[in-house]
Design brief:
35% strand, 7 strands, Aminopeptidase, alpha+beta, 4 helices, GNAT family N-acetyltransferase (chains A, B), seven-stranded mixed β-sheet, homodimer, globular
Chain lengths: 164, 164
């Protein structure tokens, strides 16, 4: 997908993003977020707790996704960052996740982070695991049965990591 | 160490615990916590964010340590818990950490948690790594250079895990 724009997420952007966020957490296939989370708590989690959050739009100005970037830990762990990415259902399979991950690595490097870590990539989310691997991430750990997948039950999660 | 008492941590207990907490985070050998954290933020982190926090005292009523217990993730990840343990300098080497970890596993099981996960055990903290292993935890992942140790520089962290 060419001509994506990345802009700091506004409250208006989050309103457009909320149905995507809500559908993804309700599905319970990928994110360890309370499926009953309300709008304000979701806004705090996605837009206020992180260091920065981007809205991603296509050339027509349609929101296609969003991601956040934050330190993965505090103090002596704050040289490693963490990101979360979500793509709207209409924009899936068009390279938006790849574009967001590449953008986030550039932003992270500019912010001085030395590495990026994903703490709990659900192992059955094979598309994501394969994409992160193609983008240079390694599986550095696997936690047994750490995610209650809505249809598959307890499945493993991967810790994935890339030196930037 | 026999005859330890475990009680829900009060604000007065935290005042007694603060010098221990402050020394441990200033040392930057074990915890990924901002070494400049202030009293109120530390209280929030240790006593308010977790599900429960215990003060541990010896038979003379002296505070010897504290630990917290919380879900390690939200929603479909909230069947796995996480704990953090700190021992006062005067009480080190007397089995307090072991006693706290054993107590926390009992409390976690009673609360319905299925597993316990430590996200970032600093690999050079060999006493802790060995103790957790003796208590049944496995190293399920190792993140390269994820901790800036005050004297050793960037060192690996382990993800450790035990099914309860």
């Amino acid at each position: 997908m060419s001509e994506l724009s990345f802009t700091p997420m506004t409250a208006d952007d989050f309103e457009l993003f909320w149905p995507t966020f809500k559908a993804i957490v309700l599905e319970q296939h990928t994110y360890a977020i309370d499926p009953d989370i309300n709008y304000q708590a979701a806004y705090t989690l996605w837009c206020e707790v992180p260091r920065t959050t981007f809205a991603v739009k296509d050339s027509a100005g349609e929101l296609v996704g969003s991601y956040y970037l934050k330190a993965n830990a505090a103090g002596p762990g704050d040289h490693v960052c963490n990101c979360g990415y979500m793509v709207t259902s209409a924009a899936r399979g068009k390279g938006v996740a790849r574009a967001m991950c590449e953008h986030s690595q550039e932003i992270a490097q500019m912010a001085g982070f030395e590495a990026m870590q994903f703490n709990a990539v659900v192992s059955t989310n094979e598309v994501a695991v394969a994409l992160w691997q193609r983008l240079g991430f390694s599986i550095v750990g696997t936690v047994p049965k750490a995610y209650r997948h809505a249809s598959l039950g307890r499945v493993d999660t991967h810790v994935m990591h890339k030196i930037l």
